[in-house]
User: Fold these one by one.
Assistant:
Number 1:
Amino acid sequence: MDIIVLLKQVPATESLIEIAADSLSIKTDAVKWVINPYDEFAVEEALRIKEKSGGTVTVICAGTDKAQEAVRTAMAMGADKGILINDPAVAGADGLGIAKALAAAIRTMPHDLILAGQRAVDDDNYLVGPAVAELLGIPNISLVIKAEIEEKKIRCTRTVEGGTVVMEAPLPALLTTQRGLNEPRYASMMGIMKAKKKPIDTKSLSDLGLKEEDVAPKVKILKMTPPPERKAGRIIEGDSPQAKAEELVRLLREEAKVI
Amino acid sequence: MSTVLIIAEQRDGAFRKVTYEAATQARAIADATGGKTAALVLGADIKGIAAELGRYGVDTIYTAENEKLAEYLTDAYTTVAQKLIQKIEPGVVVMGASAQGKDLAARLSARLDAPLAMDCISVRVQDGNIIGTRPMYGGKVIAEVALSGKPQIVAVRPNAVKIEETKGEGDVEAADADPGEVSLTFVEKQLETGKMELTEADVIVSGGRGVGGADFTIIEELAAALDGAVGASRSAVDEGWRPHSDQVGQTGKVVSPNLYVACGISGAIQHLAGMSSSKVIVAVNKDPEAPIFAKADYGIVGDLQEVVPAITAAVKAAKG
Ligand SMILES: Cc1cc2nc3c(=O)[nH]c(=O)nc-3n(C[C@H](O)[C@H](O)[C@H](O)COP(=O)(O)OP(=O)(O)OC[C@H]3O[C@@H](n4cnc5c(N)ncnc54)[C@H](O)[C@@H]3O)c2cc1C
Ligand SMILES: Nc1ncnc2c1ncn2[C@@H]1O[C@H](COP(=O)(O)O)[C@@H](O)[C@H]1O
């Protein structure tokens, strides 16, 4: 079983995000970079499948030099190989452009199963996984909380509003992760030492047979603004929980008009 | 002017609320560009409901009725949508950013090599092109994105568009409902009947670690009194008190109800990311220094075991 994990490096969720002077990007100097949390589930699931049925786990990431850390961390968790697509044109691409670059790289590699996060918590785009599957002409199942490999097919439980659906896809297939799939492991000291020796294969767009215009963005950020500032409201005073509760309900009805 | 196509979402013969929101959004786009609206309804038994979309500003309703479309399958739905899109050549395609809608939008975007603005909270048209406003970084940034190309795909966040009914009546027409070769198979589904979906709820009452255990009865009772849904912080989920599907936050669900009541939730940045676009936020916490109070419109400092039942009683009394 050759398993591929799509992995993105993103700001840690606890980061304070500030918009840069150009209003088109965020300030990165104080940001702590981590593996996208949903991609950690993907790495973990890939490793569990490999541990059970054998095979290889390759992590592939489109990013800049610093994204090597994320790839290295995944290798310390146990992934066998790492590929970094590092090209200025990719840095300016939109989600579909990234998907095209990833699909081009994967097309030349053996792949039985591809795992991606449901979304990257920076662009919150929910796009790259299904798009890569489409470009490769393989089925995808999104928001998976349980995956079982059977002979040449995969059976997945996915979440939908108010419940779950069980579906099957023939392999090769792509699935995207949902919280609940597993608990990602930490890299062991041994794993970290070993990962230092594993190579990261760096590729440019032309290595993938693509030109800059192939990944030219059709979605462009015009402007970033901070969300409307929420001001601290008022603390409701009262002699008893009942008095406070009654005053709250009065305000919700008469002032906020939400109930 | 070209058509704005809505891809409707129905489940077991009823439209999802987000479909009416998408239709309202599509109507606004069509009005701004002088175009018409059309909708595609896919499913096994949909003729009875299709015409209903006329009341939400849809001019032409296409039905793709086929046993093979009874359940959502990404590949089948993508192909049927693609066929209609190639036939009527819409300038814009609008759908709801639900679990199904997001998956379909992404796959369609790649199939058609078309730009996609995912999970938009508002949409406008400028020089014939779509500009979508969408949260990024878990709502810590609001971005305006401009699309170029055709068709331009927009997925609207559930609860972000206020539904508007119109007087009109739509024409219903059959569309090509052949999904071709389908590789996904549906096995079974389990839906909690009567459970309100968090992302669609007008009111959410959430509990955190401060609830102190798996017994969420007082939270559920307040939610019921307000006709709302129950949510949770990640801590409450990690404790095993609530299912993953209840988690609100940057790595859970992003919600924007009219009223969000946070009970025993400290207000960590990842939690705030998931609920700070709520219209009104109420916090109940015993710690007056809890960061949640800095984001709440109304706060009550106190033990939630006393305060929450008192709010429930006051809501019931007020509603009479
Ligand atoms: C990668 C990552 C992703 C994350 N994603 C999410 C996410 O999506 N959603 C999320 O919620 N969190 C997320 N977190 C976790 C987040 O950082 C916080 O740990 C979590 O939100 C805290 O939950 P809490 O407020 O319930 O618990 P706590 O922070 O422990 O707060 C409990 C609160 O309850 C109050 N309290 C206690 N007893 C009572 C009482 N009797 N009456 C009234 N108040 C009481 C306390 O004063 C306290 O303020 C994430 C963290 C990481 C690292
Ligand atoms: N630059 C990238 N490199 C590798 N994988 C990516 C990249 N961007 C997105 N992905 C994958 O696609 C998923 C969804 O990302 P997005 O569509 O950006 O929300 C992520 O969780 C990753 O698995």
Number 2:
Amino acid sequence: MKNKYSIFSLIKNAFSQHENWKQAWSDPEPKREYEAIIIGGGGHGLATAYYLAKKHNMRNIAVLEKGWIGGGNTGRNTTIIRSNYLWDASAGLYDHALKIWENLSQELNYNIMFSQRGVMNLAHNLQDVRDLKRRTHANRLNGIDAVWLDTDQVKEFCPIINTSPDIRYPVLGGTLQRRAGTARHDAVAWGYARGANEMGVDIIQNCEVKGIKRNGDQVEGVETSKGFIKTKKIGVVAAGHSSVIANMAGLKLPLESKPLQALVSEPVKPIIDTVVMSNAVHAYVSQSDKGELVIGAGTDAYISYTQRGSHDVVEGTLKAILELYPIFSRMKMLRQWGGIVDICPDASPIISKTNIKGLYFNCGWGTGGFKATPGSGDLFAHTIANDEPHKLNAAFNLNRFVSGDLVDEHGAAAVAH
Amino acid sequence: MFLINCPYCGERDQSEFSCGGEAHIIRPKQPTELSDDQWAEYLFMRKNIKGVQFERWNHAHGCRKWFNMVRDTSNDKIHAVYKMGEKPPVE
């Protein structure tokens, strides 16, 4: 590695007031032709490029990003990582990602601040208890760590939760995945960008895709704000804008794009050292290293590309947060924002070929794509390089909407939609 | 977040309404003769337009009637509201 980061490079650069660090990735003009083009420079897109270069030796490739890398949903999510999904196919997919997360800082030589602080999912009614216990058993059969906690154990694990039996939605227990946690989301994009760029991948920012050129059933290139670029393989990783790109190629996807909101509070001293999610009352919270409470709200129930979201959605989430954590009642919220999430009818992603040759889609991650970033990139790279899916993403093809072989994960997706 | 002019009740807050998604998707007349591809198209495939879109809404916390709406999904501006069965406005 050319510019290896280490304690020695840190000391060396301290002598020059940290003014001589080399640029972590270059900023080139696009070439006229590439072996493959990835549309979308978020975590998933950059990871795809990284693994295409690293594992499949495809180095004459480019990532096109209409804004700046990591500026979309990669920089807008609540950074939660877990793999406690119900079905075998999902367990395989998300745990594949979690295993990569565990060594990712070392692999990328970039501190992504992965913190396995555990994720707890609360149950508030008898059906929740049954569903979550079932999910715990399913997880353990798939080799994923998961335990059921009763109300007292929930209180012991996270003492600030109000476990009083007379609140509107009392805490009847919860599940805990200890290997789960959080990571620094920007660092994930930057680490992959640096790694990919070092192997020769061009990362082209401020380059918006305007059209996809086809010759019959084969893609020929992309029309962009920086001119036409020729290529035979296009991997689309455009999250909320996947349908917009699909429409350019004359394709329809089973997606609906909706705003999903999150907010952070003023920073305070450490008060919650884990991630707590509640599906039924729709509130989840963790604390960032800066001390801010990171709170995830729900989606607006209509299609919109506005990157805002409605006030009543935030209000509902904060009501739930206050009932579960009365201690937060006087906290002030600092920032609120929205991202556009592409939601599939079965709340599972699509990592798939299409009926157009050379056109691949990685989309439909909906409200929970961040956790899968490394696994998604790895499997999508495999799909693009070999023109066929890896066994771990075979179930997540586009054809499942025709065959009916859906992967229904509405229960394990933390945001109700 | 926006105001919707319900054709039956007048202007109300969007939170009173629920969205029924893309409008003018016609239920197949002879479901038994549909292929799997046609079913997938009817059930799942959506235009998901960024821009002017025709969609169905229901005044769930009001008159509970369905109606159609033309809305720009890139800025949430509403261009037209019209009753079920009425012809969609031409731009």
